[in-house]
Design brief:
With 343 residues, the protein is of the alpha/beta class. The chain has two domains: 161 residues, Rossmann fold (3-Layer(aba) Sandwich), CATH 3.40.50; 127 residues, Zinc Finger, Delta Prime, domain 3. Helix content is 56%, strand content 8%. It is built from 16 helices and five strands. A five-stranded parallel beta sheet has the order 2-3-4-1-5, with helices on both faces. β3, α5 and β4 form a beta-alpha-beta unit. The longest helix is centred in the C-terminal third of the chain and has 24 residues. It starts with 9 loop residues before the first helix and ends with a helix.
Length: 343
């Protein structure tokens, strides 16, 4: 992969290509932005471009150096990642030992620190000593989706480059081109990805559309009778990550209702294929009730994160959001008679 292959990040890529072309690459970059928008991929491409035997502003993808970096066995491209919860200080110490010597094969030694915010205080302080004494042959590329968690002393020594969410149409085009998805399917996944190609691919692999359609088919009426509420709560149940993904579908549904209510347009809807249902329901709900629904779903997600009782949390949320009060009144009137007829 080369800079030309990176999707939806024209601004950062132009900066990097100019830096390589003019041979003015800073000793330390911080690539930051949302998860799955191409930060780590760009770091690997930059490592290839700096050591490419073709000598241009982009990686050729054909020379021995480029192919070694692609395979992950180039001695001068070092990737440090968290082991467990943190990046260990031992990894930083080992890196510093290697940096006492010149690069073995390439023109530059490139160190990629992925999820850099997960360095603990000891690791960050150890790295700081290296950043304070830059070397012409070493380039550090810190990658982070939570740069606010990095110490200011580290941030101040890095050239910061923001990677923005990838436009929806660019993600859809990527999915159609690289994975052969049909246009409608690609656009739904792109709309649901939050601007992250990584998330779009994860949704595709996890059969997100089946999950989404199963939920939206059940809630398209806008209200449910008590058995319907219980059935929906059961459908949402599963492991923690599965429940949280289902709750993301609900949040995006209410987001669409609010957007349509305020704008009257379907162009920016996540679930654009459900525009008719969204338009019908949005006109019958107030902005206050839609915001209240967001809060209800968020509270349920936070409870699930805290390992609260899953069934109780989901049932409470579903009855709050979708219960048809008229059905409850009717059931309360029928209940005693139904019970009496069974005795």
């Amino acid at each position: 992969m080369s800079f030309a292959d990176l999707c939806g990040q024209d601004g950062p890529i132009d900066v990097l290509k100019r830096a390589v072309e003019k041979r003015r690459v800073p000793h330390a970059f911080l690539f930051y932005g949302a998860e799955g928008v191409g930060k780590r991929t760009a770091a690997l491409v930059l490592a290839k471009a700096l050591n490419c035997e073709a000598g241009g502003a982009d990686a050729c993808d054909a020379c021995l150096s480029c192919r070694k970096i692609d395979r992950g066995n180039h001695p001068d491209c070092i990737v440090i990642e968290p082991e467990g919860q943190f990046i260990k200080v031992a990894d930083i110490k080992e890196l510093q030992e290697r940096m006492r010597f010149r690069p073995l094969e390439g023109a530059r030694r490139v160190v990629i620190i992925d999820d850099a915010e997960r360095m603990n205080a000891t690791s960050a302080n150890s790295l700081l000593k290296t950043l304070e004494e830059p070397s012409a042959v070493n380039v550090f590329l810190l990658v982070s989706s939570r740069p606010h968690m990095l110490p200011m002393t580290i941030l101040s020594r890095c050239h910061r480059l923001r990677f923005n969410p990838v436009p929806r149409d660019a993600i859809a085009a990527f999915l159609m081109r690289e994975h052969g998805l049909a246009p409608d399917r690609a656009l739904i996944l792109a709309s649901s990805s939050g601007g992250s190609i990584g998330r779009a691919l994860s949704l595709h692999r996890g059969d997100y559309l089946a999950l989404r359609d199963g939920i939206l088919d059940r809630i398209a009426r806008g209200s449910l009778d008590p058995p319907g509420c219980l059935e929906l709560a059961g459908h949402l149940a599963g492991e923690k990550e599965e429940i949280l993904e289902a709750l993301d579908v609900l949040k995006s549904w209410y987001r669409d209702l609010l957007v349509f209510r305020e704008t009257g347009g379907a162009g920016t809807l996540v679930h654009h294929d459900r525009a008719a249902d969204i338009g019908r329901l949005a006109s019958a709900m107030s902005g206050e009730s839609l915001l209240g629904a967001f809060q209800t779903i968020r509270a349920a997600a936070e409870a699930i994160e805290r390992n609260a009782n899953k069934a109780l949390t989901l049932e409470t949320m579903v009855f709050t959001l979708f219960a048809d009060k008229a059905n409850f009144v009717e059931d309360s009137r029928r209940g005693p008679r139904a019970a009496g007829s069974g005795r």
